[in-house]
Specification:
By secondary structure, this protein is mainly alpha-helical. The chain is built from five helices and no strands.
Length: 125
C-alpha cells in the first residue's frame, strides 16, 4: 500500500488545484483586481524539500575534502546534537555541513572576522 491514508490529513506535497471564485465582471472593483493580482503573484507551486526528493544524502552533491580543527569538530558535534534535539529527528552530518556553508555564504562579514582571527589580512612589513 502506498501513499497517504484517506482521511488521515492533507498531503502537504499535493498541488493546490483549488482556485478562488472570480466575481462577475460588473462586480469587480479596482481593489478586488489588485488584491487578486497580489494573491496570484504570491502563490507559487509548493516545492518538495531536498530532504524528501533525494535518493540519498550524497544525491546532487559534489564531494569536497573537509579538514577541521579539533575545536571546530567538537562544536560541529554539539551543533548536530542540538539540532537533532530541536527537530526530534536524525540530522545528516552532510546536511549540517552544507547548511553551515550556506549560512556562512549569506553572512560573509562573520566569515571575514573569523579569517582575520586566524591571521588573514595581517602584514609584517
Amino acid at each position: 500500500m502506498t501513499g497517504m491514508k484517506q482521511g488521515a490529513g492533507e498531503n502537504p506535497f499535493a498541488d493546490d488545484n483549488e482556485t478562488p471564485e472570480e466575481p462577475a465582471a460588473d462586480e469587480e472593483t479596482d481593489d478586488q483586481t489588485s488584491e487578486a493580482d497580489d494573491q496570484s503573484a504570491s502563490r507559487q507551486p509548493m516545492q518538495i524539500p531536498y530532504k524528501f526528493r533525494r535518493d540519498g544524502v550524497q544525491d546532487g552533491r559534489s564531494r569536497v575534502p573537509l579538514f577541521l580543527q579539533p575545536e571546530t569538530k567538537t562544536a560541529e558535534r554539539e551543533a548536530l546534537r542540538d539540532l537533532e534535539d530541536h527537530f526530534d529527528d536524525d540530522v545528516s552530518l552532510t546536511d549540517l555541513r552544507e547548511a553551515l556553508v550556506m549560512v556562512g555564504l549569506q553572512h560573509r562579514g562573520a566569515v571575514e572576522e573569523q579569517l582575520e582571527e586566524w591571521g588573514y589580512g595581517m602584514t609584517f612589513e
